[in-house]
Amino acid sequence: MLEKFRLQNFKKFSELDLQNLARINLIVGDNNVGKTTLLEAIFTFSCGINFYPLLSVPFSQRLQDSRLPNPMILNPYRMAEYILYTFHWENLIPTSVFCLDFQGTITQKDDNKTSSEDIKIYHEFVPSQIFSEFIPQKTETWYDAPISYNIFDMQDNAGNNVRISLPNQYLGKWNITINYNQEMNETKETFSVTYPNSSSTNTAKQPQPLILAKFNNELSHCDESENRRIFAAITRAGIMGDFIKEISESFDIELEAIENIPYPDGSESSITLRPKGKNFHIPLYAFGDGLRRWYSLLGGMLIFKNAIHCIDEVDVGFHRKVQGVFSKQLVNYAHKYNNQLFMTTHNIEYMSEFLHAIDDMGDSVLENDVRVITLRAINNSVKCRTLTGKEALRACEDGLDVRL
């Protein structure tokens, strides 16, 4: 698990230092204080030198068009803008090289032994001339590489094959250095960032993540390919009966089965749910966001075991009467599959419901496994405070605003 985490120069944060993290970490605060940004920073740290997920999540996951399957709807200026505002905004103009710093302490338990490792990750981006369009003061400082072209075969709306040529615009060079335990043991990787195709300069090896991580935004449950993966994982693990029982306990529906039946022509279909005693199937997408998010978030913990799960706006779609049961199931699944959760909310009512539900599981769970991390903007910077779940519950019962 990630026990400590420190970041510098990432998006709206000049720096932020988190201590005493636990298995379940609930991040609370007002709008635009940086809750989602903190999730993105943790995901970026987890990527290590695995650069390509970093491109798709912290750079672009907030945009609606980034969730479409065809990346060619973008253009090099949009991608350059993604990159530019990944760095702390106030530090962009004074420098010609953009930098990020992350430090984390990872704790591992094996055979009743606990070991900790301090890891520092340094990102350095050397921009190309295209960035002078956004920061004109730097027009003469950045290198402009020649544009090459990629040929793509596509189909138009009528189904006709067409061939198009897209420029492969050079955007810059991205260096990632990982330092373990502040010793000379380092891993380095350099990436040539181009639009639309970026590549590692070391093609002999496949970059691996530092920690397996999954990012869940408010629309992740709409990914049907991911939903089919969850169905396959549940079926292969032999826990479909328990999974169906847990859904029935959470929502006002009795289910007989969850199925993935191909369409009559043999093509791949959506996941369907069959109500108890009925002979018809209802597509998962026909249900409300709460049930679909439940399926996506808890099922995702089965696919991504021994992993960090970053869940943005965890309470979205859940009615209050479901929140308590769902919160307990989050904790149980995190323990069962050895996952660490970082979740955001600005809903104080949900936080209270969450803490009271976990309190029913015993003092040790609330004290040892749950942290409430408060973010607040003060004097143009963001401050944080970490409470154990027990401390946060006591504050709520005393009528205090934990965000303060």
Description:
The protein is of the alpha+beta class and 404 residues long. The chain has three domains: 28-48 and 304-404, Rossmann fold; 50-207, no CATH class; 218-291, no CATH class. 28% of the residues lie in helices and 32% in strands. Strands 1, 2, 4, 5, 6, 7, 8 and 9 form an eight-stranded antiparallel β-sheet that branches. β6 and β7 form a beta hairpin. α8 (348-359) crosses α10 (389-397). The longest helix has 17 residues, at 320-336. The protein is globular, with a radius of gyration of 23 Å.
Tell me briefly what this model is.
The chain has 404 residues and is of the alpha+beta class.
Helix content: 25-40%
Instruction: Report mean pLDDT, rounded to a whole number.
Output: 85
Q: Tell me which oligomeric state these chains represent.
A: single chain
Provide the gyration radius in Å: 23 Å
Give the topology, please.
Layout: E1 2-10, E2 13-18, E3 24-28, H1 35-47, H2 51-56, H3 76-84, E4 98-110, E5 113-127, E6 148-155, E7 161-180, E8 186-195, E9 199-200, E10 213-216, H4 224-237, H5 240-250, E11 255-259, E12 272-275, E13 282-283, H6 289-303, E14 308-311, H7 320-336, E15 340-345, H8 348-359, H9 363-368, E16 370-378, E17 381-388, H10 389-397
Parallel strand pairs: 3-15, 3-16, 10-14, 14-15
Antiparallel strand pairs: 1-2, 1-4, 4-5, 5-7, 6-7, 7-8, 8-9, 11-12, 12-13, 16-17
Helix pairs in contact: 4-6, 6-7, 7-8, 8-10
